[in-house]
Write a structure and sequence with these properties.
mainly alpha, 4 helices, 61% helix
């Protein structure tokens, strides 16, 4: 008799637990803002009480004054830090990437499958291979890379 009563209790408690978990999952979009509001009210309550005591304002006006203060402080913080942050990101970009973006080297074409590289090609009589090239090589000679500024037309 005791065993069946205990089993029923476990089943009822298990069903309540499953129902509670389902409810939390179903209402998770509501619980996030609700928990944030509760946390804000708990943290800001002493400041609101202090403003009410010092200024003799009603509770609603004290809350409004506190939010105006926080929004003004947030806007001031953003106004002071964003221009500096933008300048520093630009400096970091120049330091890390710099003119590497402007210098784009185009690699030599690789021979297609089945095509043999020109190993047997020799320079014509009286000609020497170009600097940095071996006869039949498709690798460009070493030297300064062509920049995008070299490719752009010059406007008068």
């Amino acid at each position: 008799m005791m065993d069946s009563r205990r089993r029923k209790t476990y089943i009822v408690v298990g069903l309540f637990a499953v129902g509670f978990v389902w409810l939390v999952v179903a209402l998770q979009e509501v619980f996030g803002p609700l928990l944030l509001a509760l946390l804000l009210a708990y943290v800001l309550a002493p400041a609101v009480n202090w403003i009410m005591k010092v200024t003799k304002l009603p509770r609603g006006a004290a809350i409004a004054a506190l939010f105006v203060f926080f929004y003004a402080a947030l806007i001031g913080f953003i106004a002071l830090t964003v221009p500096t942050l933008i300048a520093q990101v630009g400096d970091m970009y120049q330091a890390l990437v710099g003119d590497r973006v402007a210098r784009v080297e185009i690699p030599a074409a690789e021979p297609e499958v089945g095509e043999k590289p020109n190993e047997g090609e020799k320079p014509k009589t009286g000609e020497e291979p170009e600097a940095g090239k071996t006869p039949g090589s498709k690798v460009p000679p070493p030297g300064p890379a062509m920049t995008t500024a070299d490719k752009l037309p010059v406007r008068p």
